[in-house]
Amino acid sequence: MPTIISVLRTRLGGDTMLGKGAAMALARGINILSGFLLAVVLARVLGANGYGTYLFALAIAQMLAMPSMMGLPALLMRQIAIYASEERYELINGIVRWGLKLVLMATFVVSLGFGAFVLSRSITNGRPTSLELYVWIVPFVLATGLMSWASAILHGFQRPFWASLPDGTIRPLLLLGAVAALAGLGQLNPVSAMGLHVAATTMAFVWAAIMVWRYCDLGGEVHLGTRAASDHRAWFSSLWPLFLTVAAATINSKLDLVMLGALRPSGDVALYGLAVQLAALVVVPQTILNTIIAPRIAAAGARNDKDELQKTISSACLLSFIGALAAIVLLVLFGRQMVSLFFGAEFAATYDVLIVLSVGQLIISSMAPAIISLNMLHDEKRVAGMVVASGGVNIVLNILLIPTFGIMGAAVATIITNAGLQMICAIVLYRRHRLIAWAFLSRILPRTNEQERVV
Known about the structure:
Elements lengths: L3 H8 L2 H56 L2 H14 L3 H32 L11 H4 L1 H20 L3 H25 L5 H26 L16 H32 L2 H14 L4 H20 L2 H38 L6 H16 L4 H7 L3 H54 L22
């Protein structure tokens, strides 16, 4: 009689895959702790208004970083995993160089457009924010694009632990250390915090690039000026829907903060931003598992191995939901005390919003691999359409709810939009591929190919 542990070991690829998961869980734990401490320092030193101003600028920077990545991380991850399984290293070299050129060109276009916008008018909407804060946005866009490019290569070669370190551990730890040092010197403000964010992101990219050079077989050196094997038409065909998906998803995740910054005081932005950050605890298992299974789904899809696909997706759904439920229990029991103890009385209103957001994250976690599975199985165009449509719904809901209900209205709009999108993607995954991405409909115990039937 197989135990749950032995079943999960089989489904997730043996001890090696479980070891990767444990290592990534440790890295994610460091990320959560450093991010929490960073939020404590920034909130305590900058206050609600200063912290809200910083979060508003950061949200704008993250939205502007979309064109510099153009959906490349998902495309690179998927195609490199497929090419590596087929030992087509000349195409790996070609797509790596092609992706780097796109990052640089997109960043140049973004810098021109955003620079012209900043020079032509103020973007502070009456808020007393220095223009110096927004000078850091273009370097942030470039550093983020390069870091994502290098991390995606590591993901494609199925090195999820190394790929998760730049953004998940190295950047937050460097940023935390620098922010704490500057706070101790009494020089911390929204502008300096943004500058430190850029520096930490740049260092994270350098580390990721070194890991790519050491551990990934790119089929030759990467030089921008030389020709390489390529499949430009197919790459562009997949890139645009992936870009739309990433763009709409980023807008969905940051739109509430930006609209709060435009419609409400900076203090509300700080309260809501803190709730979003703490609610991210609920999706930690989902983030780790999606990162591990994405290249496996791409490779299994290329082989048309339905059994492997269903087992991988089912296990990810189950573990994501269990982890999310455990996180919500902790937040319900200790969230209010944690907010008051670490952030102070002025952030007390964060707790109610935190609980609402966490419940929405629990629903999403029960269908965790739906979107990533569709992207890895070449259904990115359908995903793009659904994500863009959800972005439109999100805009309408935020416009309707924020003026009346403030941060709680933003939370409800976010839950309705994201949970609805995840549910629709799970339905499409079943109809298109007969794969179940729902924790309560997935079977834990594996069956033989003849016995297993998706219902």
